[in-house]
Amino acid sequence: MSRPGAPSRRLAGCVALTATALVLAGCGSDDSSSNSAGKPELRITGAYMPAPVMDTMAAGFFTVTNSGGADTLTSVTSDLAPDVTLHSTKGGAMEEQKSFAVPADGSLDFASGGNHLMFEKLTHKPLEGEKVSVTLHFAEAGTVKVSMPVKSATYNPKTGH
Questions:
Q1: What is the H or E stretch that residue 64 is in?
Q2: What is the CB neighbour count within 10 angstroms for residue 143?
Q3: Is 24 a residue whose pLDDT tops 80?
Q4: Angle at 121 between CA 148 and CA 82, to 5 degrees
Q5: Which of 122, 148, 140 lies closest to 73 in space, CA to CA?
Q6: Measured between alpha carbons, how far is 119 from 75 in angstroms, rounded to an integer?
Q7: Could you give the CA distance from residue 99 to residue 108 in angstroms, rounded to a whole number?
Q8: Which of 53, 85, 128, 140 gives a 20 to 30 Å CA spacing to 70?
Q9: Is residue 119 within 8 Å of residue 58, measured between CB atoms?
Q10: pTM over 0.85, yes/no
């Protein structure tokens, strides 16, 4: 025998439990939407290598444009050289860096006189017109392969020479 009002109390309890669950679900973060919005979306442009004047080392330049969440360039590899290092130039002094931040919805520039790659112990001296295969390693986006054309030693991307 059920007591008067018991079914309505059970129904009210179920409604309250369901409402609480819905409120809590709405307060939690939706990982799928926040992760997709926070993932880096990288595009590499303007890559080039000035024809090296030395047989043992060369430089490389490019721009990383990011239309997503923040990332970090952690290393670079290439068949052209066993050692490819990241460098910054501040106040005319070149300094090796372990990594470079790629800001969310921003860019990272590697340009003559600033940040750049150093290819050391070249397997061969690339000539103007060749393409050098480079793999950029990012903490979040993984690897991005880039074909870096070898330009004249005096190439300036602003003027084309």
A1: strand 57-66
A2: 10
A3: no
A4: 70
A5: 140
A6: 12
A7: 12
A8: 85
A9: yes
A10: no
Q: pLDDT, tens digit, for every residue of 63-84?
A: 999 999 999 999 999 999 999 9
pLDDT in tens, 108-120: 999 999 999 999 9
Amino acid residing at 79: D
Cβ-contact 109, 63 below 8 angstroms:
yes
Q: Which of 123, 121, 117 is nearest to 146 (CA)?
A: 117
> What is the number of other CB atoms lying within 10 angstroms of the CB of residue 27?
7
* CA dist., res. 158 & res. 46, Å (int): 11
CA separation for the pair 59, 19 (Å, rounded): 62
Q: Can you give the C-alpha Rg of the chain in angstroms?
A: 27
* Residue 115 in tokens: 């940040």
Note whether 59 and 49 are within 8 A (CB).
yes
